[in-house]
Amino acid sequence: ALHLPLLVRSDEPTSSFGQESTPYTDQETGLTMERFFGARTTFGFAFTRSVQDTNSSSFIGQLTFPLANGVGWGAFGLTGDMEGNFILAAWPDGNGGVMSSFRQATDEDNPPEVGGNFKVRPIASGISVNDTFLTYTFLCENCLDATLGLGPQATVGNAVMGWALSERAVSNPADPGARLGFHERGFGPFTARWASATSAGFEQIAASAGALVGASNRAVAATPNAFGDSGDSDDEDDDEVPRGGGRGGGGAGDDSDDSD
């Protein structure tokens, strides 16, 4: 008899904090950035700040990731542990554009939408979507906040952040509060080299950002320090995947085919 393999949900991260961001120049905006890139998934998250104000709580980010027949979603998070992580997720809106919303991963099967002082404004020159790939460039205003996992004071060096990816369709994709589902394609931590993430062209590109993306009427207030509420494990491997941002250093990048 033919036995088909079962699809088993994995809660094990597919990257490590040893994987560091690297210098990157975005061809559409001309911004010099730092970027985490997963060789197996081709998921990317790039980020940069103003040369003039490295203490700002705002930055420009860019999510890039593959789609499966035009569907899927991707996200970056302020900490390296997905449980309780504050994330910005993006996905095709079903009308030729991109939708995004802030979530807190207190429920990994459907992270609830949250609102607060943080805002996201799309940068049209750095947005594209088709059946196979999505690029979403945005201004993230007041997104760096220590109570959400990563504050400006922790970005003077390296900080551990996170990412997540799914190739499953988002229900009601035009709704910012749409159900996302589990990140079955991959997730995990990486080390973001914030000290190197500045661009002389930041102000010009930031000024081109569009109107803020509104939340749905189901959004709830973000919970401060939710990233620390997931409980401590007794596993010996706890130190290998740090929960919060702000961890300095980071070893050589892990580019093996078994990661990301």
In terms of per-residue confidence, which ranges show pLDDT below 50 for 5 or more consecutive residues? Answer: 1-9, 230-258
Quaternary structure of the protein = single chain
Task: Using the 3D structure, state the CATH architecture.
Answer: Sandwich
The shape, in one word, is: globular
Going by CATH, the homologous superfamily would be Cellobiose dehydrogenase, cytochrome domain
Helices and strands, in N-to-C order? EEEEEEEEEEEEEHE
Rg for CA atoms:
17 Å
How many domains is the backbone divided into?
Answer: 1
Sheet/helix structural class: mainly beta
> How many helices?
1
- Mean pLDDT reading: 85
How far is the N terminus from the C terminus?
34 Å
- Secondary structure: helix percent: under 10%
List the helices and strands and how they pair.
Layout: E1 22-25, E2 32-37, E3 44-50, E4 59-66, E5 73-77, E6 86-92, E7 98-104, E8 114-115, E9 119-129, E10 133-141, E11 158-166, E12 186-193, E13 198-199, H1 202-207, E14 220-221
Parallel strand pairs: 3-13, 8-14
Antiparallel strand pairs: 1-2, 2-3, 3-4, 4-10, 5-6, 5-11, 6-7, 9-10, 11-12
Region (Disordered): 223-260
Pfam families: CDH-cyt
Domain Cellobiose dehydrogenase-like cytochrome: 24-203
Folded structure, characterized:
By secondary structure, this protein is mainly β. The chain has one domain (22-223): Cellobiose dehydrogenase, cytochrome domain (Immunoglobulin-like). It has one helix at 202-207, and strands spanning 22-25, 32-37, 44-50, 59-66, 73-77, 86-92, 98-104, 114-115, 119-129, 133-141, 158-166, 186-193, 198-199, 220-221. Strands 1, 2, 3, 4, 9, 10 and 13 form a 7-stranded mixed β-sheet that branches. Strand 1 (22-25) and strand 2 (32-37) form a beta hairpin. The chain is globular and about 40 Å long. Residues 1-9 and 230-258 have low confidence and may be disordered.
